[in-house]
Amino acid sequence: MARCLYGALPALFALAMLPSGAPASAQGAGVYWQAGAGGGAAHGLKILSGGDGIWRATSAGGAPAVAIVKPGSNYLYFALDPAREKPSAPVYVSVLYFDAGVSGGLILEYDSTAGDRLVDRYRPAEDAVGGGMLGTGKWRAARFRLSRPLFQHRQNNGADLRLTASGPLTIASVRIGGNRPADWDAVARESRANVKALVHIGPGGEFIVGGFDPPSKEGAAGAVHALEQALPALKSLGVTSHEGYVRWGLCEPQEGRFDWSVYDPFVRVYKRAGLKWVPFIILGSAYSLPDWYFKKPGSQGYVCLEHNQETHVQSLWNPDLRKRVARFLAAFCDHYRDSGVIESILLGITGNYGEAIYPVTGNDWTADVHGPYHTHPGYWCGDHFAADSFKAWLVRRYGGGGPLRDAWGDSIGSIEDAHPFLRANAPNDRAWLDMVSWYIDSMTQWARFWLKTTREHFPQGEIYLCTGGDAPPWHGSDFGAQCKAAAEVHGGVRITNESSDYAANWSLTRWVASAGKQYGAYYSFEPAGNVDPNGVIARIYGATSSGAHGLHYYYPNLFDTAAARDNFVKWGRAFKQRKPVVEIAVYYPETWIKLHGQVPLGSYQPLRDRFDFDYMSDGMILDGGLGHIKALILMGGDVSERKVWDAIGTWVKRGGLLLAANGMGTLRTPEGDAAPNEELLGAGVDHGAGRVALFNGGPYAREYRDFLASELGHAPELSVETRRMVTADGKEDGCYVTLCAPNELLWLNATDHPVAKNGVTIQAHSISSQRIRAMAP
Ligand SMILES: [Zn+2]
């Protein structure tokens, strides 16, 4: 659940190839530096070395050059000779650089007259052409305009300007002049002309890249500059949109006065580049709060039950926050609704990072505005608004003290006495289920409010709810209910918990994918942080084989290493809008999870290695989700509500195949009624048109998975294609299969060696599509 926020990164640009393909001489009149023996020749401009700016002499394309020594250094620093007369503004800088690989483009930061702050000494160039890194293996030109140069040597090493890029940076010359370079427009044209799309994702898909986020108004210009320089690389990879964190505090600097000057420049960049925007709107998380709201009258942070301490993240039960959210969403949509650049609006409704979960972690970059805050996994419902909500929920459920005592026991006097409590203080299991159900329902209702309000002001276009984590009860997330709420407004869900391992990613995102399909909500997947190069492939497979509408990477996931970028270039086209055919589900035991903490999601992963299946939670079952499932597997979770067991029993009688392990415990209700065990699994029970296949052993045993693969490979309840899917794989070998319409087996080999499967050899870390002929049953 730890969403990463990568700051503005060294970025890239358009590339302009010199006609000769070789470095032009920088000699002649003016102020310049040119690479050569001993670091080159300074003509009023010298290259400096030290600190984060160590360079080495090298050559590239047959010409002398200098390169940043990486890792360790990130910049090339330059200083004007103090004896030289300072050029008057504006100043133009021309750079000749070697375009060695696809990565972030050339960025220039200079010492400016804007003020005394650190950002004023590293001000990004106001305008630039060229500078893109697209791997042409040629010398290229970049041109920058500096509107407010100071030349008082206030940068590191006593420099006046510095150059950087996210990848390797090798340059041959830098020239400073007072006139706009005559080739400015030509460089711009060549930059655009040289962007070749290396990847075309399938039609209808969304390929979103995050990064370049300003933490402050002062940081906005640098973030915009970095994004603009990165555009050629982003476009070459087929990116459809940029996702940016829209912080409340950067948009409403004074109460009631909206100021869009941080985000408007981004929109201008999108329009110029033909890129879409995913504004990620965050109110309530600590880093989003305006100074005028933070800890001021009317605000209310969540209060934990564990320590009765308030955190900076704002309580969703506070009615004042609800008003602020409604007003902000209206103002944002009024300003940007018709901008033509929005791919989707992403809603960051609460939590440490802007997800549909309560505080869990934090005190990382999320403390960058208001400082460290009290945070941990726990129950954050200790404020008086929460207590009022809990009582109102109990009144709706029980009506009065009598029925409440019937359910909770006599230790509770009346509803008025009921305050949110921890598990250890729960009068009984029913009381705890009520407490957790209210806690989770509060999050779902908060999500519903955000979704509906946004839809009122954004009637056309996509809206995603951002969620994350792995849904233990203290997170407050029911991904099924969140998908249902999103579908009500023709919205979707973005889940932000992926890493590099396919099986782990699958186990974390599958609830969203299953519920999204059931309720009709679209969905997209995002990593929580780092993704390794093979993880780039695993995530493409995960998205396309789950029917995800969108796939998100943070910029460094793709551009920090050549291997990651190359893997996306090779496999990105596999991200198509597929339709997975899933007839098998594993029961996702929500009630058991509420009582016991968390289901062992890792224990589902080896089963996924054998064949593909969905999750089916209590709420999904009660909403009729079994209707499109032909086989249901019980693994963990022997406690559920009577109506859930009944719905499963009814579905079996209508022809469903239920598979269970008798070692999983006695199926029962929270009150201990074990009748469901006999009704579902008892010997000699009449199951009507369906049947029950019972394994003699524990639910997490390998032998149970052998049993499931064997049963399902021959189950007449399943379509012949699904049975083929099961029998084609069926093994726990790091090779995964999904059945997609029509008649496609889609494979992922996540191992380091080739694997033979179903008559084909699948190379290490690769995706393979195999057509199967429809067969008679
Ligand atoms: Zn606490």
SSE order and pairing:
Layout: E1 31-34, E2 41-43, E3 45-48, E4 55-60, E5 63-68, E6 76-80, E7 91-99, E8 102-103, E9 107-110, H1 118-121, E10 123-124, E11 127-130, E12 133-134, E13 138-146, E14 161-164, E15 170-177, H2 184-193, E16 206-210, H3 220-236, E17 241-247, H4 248-251, H5 264-273, E18 276-282, E19 301-303, E20 310-314, H6 319-336, E21 344-348, H7 384-398, H8 401-408, H9 429-457, E22 462-467, H10 479-488, E23 492-498, H11 502-519, E24 522-527, H12 533-546, E25 550-554, H13 555-559, H14 562-571, E26 579-580, E27 584-588, H15 590-596, H16 605-610, E28 614-617, H17 618-622, E29 631-633, H18 642-653, E30 657-661, H19 675-681, E31 691-695, H20 702-713, H21 720-728, E32 735-741, E33 744-749, E34 755-757, E35 760-762, E36 766-771
Parallel strand pairs: 16-17, 16-25, 17-18, 18-21, 21-22, 22-23, 23-24, 24-25, 27-28, 27-29, 29-30, 30-31
Antiparallel strand pairs: 1-2, 1-15, 3-6, 4-5, 5-15, 6-14, 7-13, 7-15, 8-12, 9-10, 9-14, 11-13, 19-20, 26-32, 32-33, 33-36, 34-35
Helix pairs in contact: 3-5, 6-9, 7-9, 9-10, 10-11, 11-12, 12-14, 20-21
Zinc ion binds next to loops.
